[in-house]
Design goal:
Layout lengths: L11 H4 L2 E4 L4 E3 H7 L4 H10 L2 H15 L6 H12 L3 H5 L8 H53 L5
Antiparallel strand pairs: 1-2
Helix pairs in contact: 3-4, 4-5
Length: about 160
Amino acid sequence: MTALFGLESQYDTFLFASLSETDEMTLSVLSLLARQDVDPWQEAARLTQLPKTQAINSLAAKIWTSNSERWSPSEASILAARLIELLPSHSHSSPLWAGGDTGRLTFWMVAWILFMSVAISENNIHKSTSVTSAPATSVSIVAQEHAATRSSRGIGTD
């Protein structure tokens, strides 16, 4: 009833979507849920809060149990997936790597920042190791030259 007054109209597209149509009548999501003694607006709100896969599975189970002779489980799942797309949270929100242009832009910006961070830190590590390794290299060269001089003079050899 609240949708009639505009309070929950965000779910109307979903609730009034058709599951099946015959010459006599149209079966909507709203009527399917009402026949199962489920408040349609509460169920729409609940499905909106679920991850997309769980929402599809939950609605598919309701569709299939409403009339298992009409729909197979796979048909109910396909129908539920189409209907879940009509919910506000599942039609507009997408993970960073999928969906609309904003999601793709965000993904590539984050990837670029991570890449640059790794490149800068790798460059800093390379510089710090080359600076610290230079004295060690020159010390080892001097030590080798000193050892060669001592051995040529016969000092410290067995």
